[in-house]
């Protein structure tokens, strides 16, 4: 058997792959068939949705039979005058039928002249006061004059502090807020502003309405109420006129003046109204009784005045409600002017705020008509060891008079309380179990 010798040449199988040619006719037929089927499917779909869908819907959900409704338009009426519109909204007593031979028109059953009704009185008053466009122009012109006069009593307080940076260079920082001239004697000015803005100041600069600047010094302050009194010597400028905040009512017009975003926008006025009075609001842990307003309060309004339509200061703007979770607009608060003036006078005279008297009584806001027709405020609860408890008040009593003045609302009680001091003796007339009692209340601090 012969030996197998390796071949000197390597034998390999060589295979060549030949690409199959494209059948153009077959490809064209398939393309046309696909397009034709797509067109046919589209036509069937359109037919189904456009023709059959309404038929099937009406068959499955037959439309309800609706009766024809007639729309009647009211007849044109003559335009009502403002006097008629106001009188139309007033309550009118329904007339009672008069017997034969009764009193003549305008007389009561006794034959005496009958007093006109409230509607007749309002109509008669408004008839003598025709309101025209010029009256509104005069109103806004007067308000503009009042605000311009008040601007002369406004100042911009700049608190200057110095800091040394890491290059050992001195850097000055300035914090600005509005201030109000509340007292002047021809030589010195006393300015009311917020203490938190000037508490760390090394220098205090005042910018007056015409742009001049002078230095001021801190005279007195109270950090808890965030009030500061500044003093300037050698200046003669008018002091602001203060109104009576105790007479405010919800809906009265109100205007806030301040320096939003700095001195460049000083003496900016925003308008609104009194939203509420005697609101107990927690300010940095201190409960304060404030005026609520919807006049816009921006950064730089705090410390500025809240004024009425006569340009009189009725409050000192203090806070604006804000929230990270809810949108809050038009919710600002101001210290009542009567309370602010009392605090300022105490700071100047005593160097501190005197303790505020408290009643320690929770009173129902709704007055109750007593059997004899008098109004009383029901005592709901008492705080032990405070003024009301020590005077002998009890739950269920009705407060009729406080400090010899009749009271028919909690606001009236608070107004009287603001004029009192710790230690004052206050007579209180109450109604208890069918009889009137007079108690003596000694005002105590909390």
**How many helices in DSSP terms?**
8
CATH class of the domain at 245-350: Mainly Beta
CATH second-level architecture of the domain at 245-350 = Beta Barrel
What is the subunit arrangement here?
single chain
**Portion of residues within helices:** 10-25%
The radius of gyration computed from the alpha-carbon positions, rounded to a whole number of angstroms, is 41 Å
* Average pLDDT over all residues: 79
- List how many beta strands DSSP finds: 21
Low-confidence runs of at least 5 consecutive residues: 85-102
H and E string: HHHHEEEHEEEEEEEEEHEEEEHEEHEEE
Query: What structural category characterises the helix and strand content?
Result: alpha+beta
Main beta sheet, described? 7 strands, antiparallel
End-to-end separation in angstroms reads 131 Å
Query: What would the principal axes of the Cα set say about the shape?
Result: extended
CATH fold type of the domain at 245-350: Thrombin, subunit H
How would you explain this protein's 3D organization?
The protein is an alpha+beta fold and 446 residues long. Among the domains are: 245-350, Thrombin, subunit H; 357-445, Roll (Pdz3 Domain), CATH 2.30.42. It has helices at residues 24-60, 82-88, 118-127, 133-151, 195-198, 337-350, 387-391, 410-418; strands at residues 154-164, 170-184, 188-193, 203-207, 213-222, 227-233, 253-258, 268-283, 286-293, 305-307, 313-320, 332-336, 357-358, 361-363, 368-369, 375-382, 398-402, 405-406, 425-432, 435-442, 444-445.
